[in-house]
């Protein structure tokens, strides 16, 4: 009878797995931004991450799941910033980092989300609940500001939220088209003033 000897394989810690996952997301974000969803082939994803397809898809079921994870990661970071500092601060952060690789990668993934929402009904359904959490964070923050007397009270919160979302979408488009942004700081000041109660 053969005796089986089990070699002890060191377990990879959850921290190591999370770190590897974040590395993959960061490299994939840049790859999707540079090449678009269709152009970000598995070979390009392997080159960007420095990992084999087996290693990448150990963490993510397929390319679609990887793209959705990138987009969700971006949306979660945005929800946290909106809840803490509001949508105008997200816009200010975007503007401040407009030329950094992180921001350009993020912009690219935002545009790719927009494109897929128009062309891919299955993606649109999966994305609906993610965008709902961002909308909810925006409206909750606006409600808190109104309760604190900072926000104008002559316009419904829903209208203010849609106004801010339009301003945000316009800024993303402006940056994505690589138009000379000039100094958009005063424009964002105006957006912020438009939703505030006079004197605040």
Radius of gyration, in angstroms, nearest whole number:
21 Å
- CATH class of the domain at 62-195 reads Mainly Alpha
Structural class: mainly alpha
Net shape: elongated
Going by CATH, the homologous superfamily of the domain at 62-195 would be: Tetracycline Repressor, domain 2
CATH fold-level name of the domain at 62-195: Tetracycline Repressor, domain 2
Identify the CATH architecture of the domain at 62-195.
Answer: Orthogonal Bundle
Please report the total strand number as a whole number: 0
DNA-binding region: 41-60
Protein name: TetR family transcriptional regulator
InterPro entries: DNA-bd_HTH_TetR-type_CS, Homeodomain-like_sf, HTH-type_TetR-like_transc_reg, HTH_TetR, Tet_transcr_reg_TetR-rel_C_sf
Pfam families: TetR_N
What would you say about this model in short?
The protein is an all-alpha fold.
Structure description:
It is a single chain. The protein has 200 residues and is mostly helical. The protein has a domain at 62-195: Orthogonal Bundle (Tetracycline Repressor, domain 2). It contains 9 helices and no strands. The chain has helices at 14-39, 42-49, 53-59, 63-85, 87-96, 101-119, 121-147, 157-176, 185-195. It is elongated and about 60 Å long.
């Amino acid at each position: 009878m053969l005796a089986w000897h089990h070699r002890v394989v060191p377990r990879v810690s959850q921290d190591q797995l999370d770190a590897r996952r974040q590395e993959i997301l960061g490299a994939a974000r840049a790859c999707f931004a540079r090449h678009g969803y269709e152009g970000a082939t598995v070979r390009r994803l392997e080159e960007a991450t420095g990992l084999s397809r087996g290693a990448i898809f150990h963490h993510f079921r397929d390319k679609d799941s990887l793209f959705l994870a990138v987009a969700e990661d971006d949306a979660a970071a945005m929800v946290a910033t909106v809840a803490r500092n509001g949508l105008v601060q997200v816009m200010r952060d975007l503007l401040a980092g407009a030329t950094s690789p992180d921001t350009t990668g993020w912009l690219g993934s935002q545009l790719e989300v927009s494109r897929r929402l128009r062309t891919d009904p299955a993606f649109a359904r999966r994305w609906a609940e993610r965008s709902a959490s961002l909308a909810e964070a925006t409206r909750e923050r606006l409600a808190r500001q109104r309760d604190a007397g900072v926000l104008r009270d002559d316009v419904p919160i829903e209208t203010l939220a849609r106004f801010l979302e339009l301003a945000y979408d316009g800024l993303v488009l402006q940056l994505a088209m690589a138009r000379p942004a000039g100094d958009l700081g005063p424009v964002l000041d105006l957006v912020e003033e438009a939703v505030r109660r006079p004197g605040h």
